[in-house]
Structure formats: structure tokens, C-alpha cells
């Protein structure tokens, strides 16, 4: 399960998405996340699915590798869907003991599961196609206007970059600790969900110790190199928008406008008896 977590990992391959400016990918991810929460309609999600499938094809990241990251959130998806299914009020379809399944709850559970799945896939594509350094530079440039109100933009971008970089490192460290404890007789695979969760508790202490040790080593390394923040620092590879970035922005705006148009059509035009 630990190895199935792909959040924060970079997949090195030559593709159109990998060559895009990181600012384009950050803006695209934000607009994509907004688009999947605009409505709960069939036609809207067809448009979102087609757009996401096209982006996955352009990224050249194997679909198997992308879907592998969903294994880590299956429990969250199940709990979210179950809560929406049984706790939503509306027209009752049938009973399961004292629990009631409603038409509105079934609708909400279905679309909430789709939203969370698309949210993880869209966010993961950004990290798969963008290195941590590129993410830092792109985020810093996008937040640059906030410096006028004394927001530490460089420090915020650097912390987010370090956090993303540490995710695969900590996952690898967790896997090593699990194997070491399993070699000493620990059991992480038998029993139910609650027993497995309790079995993971002994991992927390050595994992926290390892995380604090790595953080201390990183802080000492930055101090040894006289790191003093982003004021006056130059970039080895300055960010510049190219032709492909402009084309990507146009495609993104067309997609977002289409999504909004579909939402408006399905919300208002039925009152005027218009049909597809």
C-alpha cells in the first residue's frame, strides 16, 4: 500500500505537458479543480472526462502508474460515498436495516466519488509532469504580487516544494521501517481494518524521529551554504512564456468556458422547454 502512493512523485518523460511552463500547469490545475465542483450533471462530467483523458494522453505518463495512486485513497472514497449515501435526506428508495437509501443520497454519493477521483488524478498529473524546483519557481512567480503586502512569497513556495519533495522520501522510509519490523515478527497484513490500523502505530515513533532528523540535516545544510531567503537571488533557468504556453492557455479557457456553458444550459434552459 505504501508503494502505491504516488502523490508528489515526478515521472521523467518527454511530453508536451512536461515542457509547459509550471505557471500554466498550476493555473490549469486550479481551473480544473474548480470545474469539477461547478455542477452535478451528466453532460458536464462527460466534458471533464474527455478533457482529463486528453491531458493524460498528452502527458505520456502510463495510465497504470496514474491509477495506482488511487489505491491509497480508496478508504476515503468509500467513507465519503457511504456517508453521502445513507445520511442524505430525500426520496427513500429502500431500507438496509435502520439505514435509509435515498435518491438524492445515491446521486450525491456517485458524484462525490467522481469528484474526489478526478481531483486526485488532476492534481497528480501536475506533480508527475513538473519537478519540485519548477513548482517552486512557478508558485513564487504567481504569488509575486503578494509581496507588496509583506507576504513571504519565496518562503511559502520553498516550504511547499520541500513538503512535496519529502513525501516520496518519507514513504520510502516508512516502507523500510515496516520491512525491518516485519523481519522481527511484526504483522501488518492479517486481521481487519481496525487491527491493521493499530498495527501501524509502532511505525509512528521511528518515522517521526527520521523526519525530524532529515529536517535538521536540511536546515544545517542550508545554513552552511549561507541561505538567506529569496531576496536578490537569481534563477539559473528564468521562466518565460512560449508559444506552446499561449496555446495551452487558449485551450484551457475554451474548456472552462465550455464547462460553464454546459452548466448554464442544464440549469436554466429546461425552464424554457429547450432540449438537446
Furnish the topology, listing elements before pairings:
Blueprint: H1 16-19, H2 22-35, H3 42-59, H4 63-68, H5 74-87, E1 92-96, E2 99-102, H6 103-128, H7 132-142, H8 153-183, H9 193-199, H10 201-224, H11 243-268
Antiparallel strand pairs: 1-2
Describe the protein's architecture and organization.
With 276 residues, the chain is mainly alpha-helical. It is 66% helix and 3% strand. It contains 11 helices and 2 strands; from the N terminus they run H-H-H-H-H-E-E-H-H-H-H-H-H. It has a two-stranded antiparallel ribbon. The two termini are 45 Å apart.
Q: Provide mean pLDDT, rounded.
A: 79
* End-to-end CA span: 45 Å
* DSSP helix fraction: 55-70%
* Structure annotation, total helices: 11
> Taking Cα atoms only, what radius of gyration do you get, to the nearest Å?
23 Å
Count of domain modules = 2
Please report which band the strand proportion falls in: under 5%, 5-15%, 15-25%, 25-35%, 35-45% or over 45%.
under 5%
In total, how many beta strands? Answer: 2
Taken in chain order, the helices and strands follow as HHHHHEEHHHHHH
Q: What is the assembly state of the chains in this entry?
A: single chain
Amino acid at each position: 500500500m505504501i508503494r502505491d502512493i504516488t502523490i508528489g512523485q515526478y515521472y521523467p518523460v518527454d511530453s508536451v505537458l512536461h515542457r509547459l511552463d509550471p505557471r500554466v500547469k498550476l493555473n490549469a490545475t486550479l481551473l480544473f479543480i474548480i470545474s469539477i465542483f461547478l455542477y452535478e450533471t451528466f453532460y458536464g462530467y462527460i466534458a471533464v472526462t474527455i478533457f482529463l483523458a486528453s491531458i493524460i494522453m498528452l502527458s505520456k505518463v502510463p495510465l497504470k502508474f496514474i491509477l495506482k495512486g488511487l489505491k491509497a485513497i480508496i478508504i476515503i472514497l468509500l467513507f465519503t460515498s457511504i456517508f453521502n449515501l445513507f445520511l442524505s435526506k430525500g426520496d427513500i428508495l429502500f431500507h438496509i436495516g435502520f439505514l435509509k437509501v435515498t435518491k438524492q443520497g445515491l446521486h450525491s454519493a456517485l458524484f462525490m466519488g467522481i469528484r474526489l477521483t478526478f481531483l486526485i488524478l488532476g492534481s497528480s498529473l501536475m506533480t508527475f509532469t513538473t519537478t519540485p524546483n519548477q513548482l517552486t519557481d512557478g508558485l513564487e512567480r504567481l504569488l509575486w504580487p503578494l509581496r507588496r503586502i509583506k507576504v513571504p512569497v519565496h518562503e511559502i513556495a520553498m516550504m511547499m516544494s520541500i513538503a512535496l519533495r519529502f513525501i516520496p522520501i518519507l514513504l520510502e522510509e516508512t516502507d523500510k521501517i515496516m520491512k525491518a519490523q516485519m523481519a522481527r515478527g511484526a504483522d501488518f497484513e492479517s486481521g481487519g481494518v481496525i487491527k491493521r490500523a493499530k498495527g501501524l502505530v509502532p511505525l509512528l515513533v521511528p518515522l517521526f524521529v527520521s523526519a525530524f532528523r532529515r529536517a535538521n540535516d536540511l536546515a544545517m545544510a542550508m545554513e552552511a551554504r549561507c541561505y538567506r531567503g529569496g531576496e536578490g537571488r537569481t534563477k539559473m533557468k528564468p521562466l518565460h512564456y512560449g508559444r506552446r504556453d499561449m496555446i495551452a492557455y487558449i485551450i484551457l479557457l475554451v474548456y472552462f468556458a465550455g464547462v460553464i456553458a454546459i452548466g448554464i444550459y442544464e440549469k436554466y434552459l429546461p425552464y424554457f422547454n429547450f432540449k438537446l
